[in-house]
Amino acid sequence: MNDTTSPSDPALLQVDAPHRELLDQVLDKWSLQVLDTLCGRPLRFNELRREIPAVGQKSLTATLRRLERNGMVERVVIATRPVAVEYRITPTGDTLNELVDALLRWTTVNLPDVERARARFDDDERR
């Protein structure tokens, strides 16, 4: 690896408009759950909805389309009668697997501290 691509290179840590847009689309409300679920195995739309019961049909459709557009998920038409559609994680999407797991672990470990901080803040705001 040359000096221009070393992990400490500031160019790799940019937070300009294209980076923010991609992060917004990958880290939005439903994308993390969809990516985490599809890392387990390919699923059809209704199977995915059952795995994430809180997501509505419209939100899941929009999330899958956004993830497909960004190359994280692929939509595969299966030639059966009737025709079936399956969603699969792509190699690019799979590179997020460890990161998504790390974020989910982080939220589990740190949520109690965050909830205490929120309660302190809210108490201070009421005074």
UniProtKB/TrEMBL annotation:
Keywords: DNA-binding, Transcription, Transcription regulation
Residues of the HTH hxlR-type domain: 17-115
TM regions (residue ranges): none
One of the Pfam families matching this protein, by short name: HxlR
GO MF annotation terms: DNA binding
Recorded superkingdom: Bacteria
PANTHER family attached to this UniProt entry: TRANSCRIPTIONAL REGULATOR, MARR FAMILY (PTHR33204), TRANSCRIPTIONAL REGULATORY PROTEIN (PTHR33204:SF39)
Protein's recorded name: HTH hxlR-type domain-containing protein
Top-level taxonomy: Bacteria, Bacillati, Actinomycetota, Actinomycetes, Micrococcales
